[in-house]
Give the backbone structure.
Amino acid sequence: MAVTLWVDADACPRALRDLLARAAERRRVLAHFVANSSVSLPDSPYLRASQVGRGADAADDLIASRAQLNDVVVTQDIPLAARLVPLGVHVITPHGRELNADNIAERLSVRDFLTEARDMGVVTGGPPPFGEKQRQAFAQSLDRVLTRALKAAERAARG
C-alpha cells in the first residue's frame, strides 16, 4: 500500500507548493493537489492535479473519498480533517500543526465557536501571516509526518 500526499490546494499557500513537490520527488510518493481552480505544477510522475467543481466542499469531498489509511493530507480545513483522522489519515495544516485523534475534537469545537462568533458579527481575525517561520515549521512537520506514514505503510505491507 503506497502513501499518497493529498493537498487541499485552494487553501495552501503558494510558497508550499514547491516544497511539497520537492518532498514528493525525494520521497517518491504521489502528491495530488486538489482545487476548485487550475493548479500549475512542474512536470513529474509524482505530481498530479485535479480541478473540481465550484461547490464549497467539492475539493474536500474528493480528498475524503480517496484518502486512505496512512495517506497524508495538507489542509487547514478542520471539518475535512475531522472526517479524515478517524480513517487513520495523517493531517497537517499549512502552518505545520498536526491534527490527530488527540486534538481534532478540540480544534473542531474552537472552529465552530469562531464561526458562530463571526456569524454574530464579532471580528475574530484570520490565520496568522504566512512567512519563513511558518514555512520552516511546515517543512519540519511534513518530514516528520511523511516518515511516520511511510513507516506505518511499510509495516502494514509486511503484514
Observations:
- The radius of gyration is 16 Å.
- The first strand starts at residue 4 and ends at 8.
- The beta strands are 4-8, 30-35, 47-51, 72-74, 90-92, 98-99.
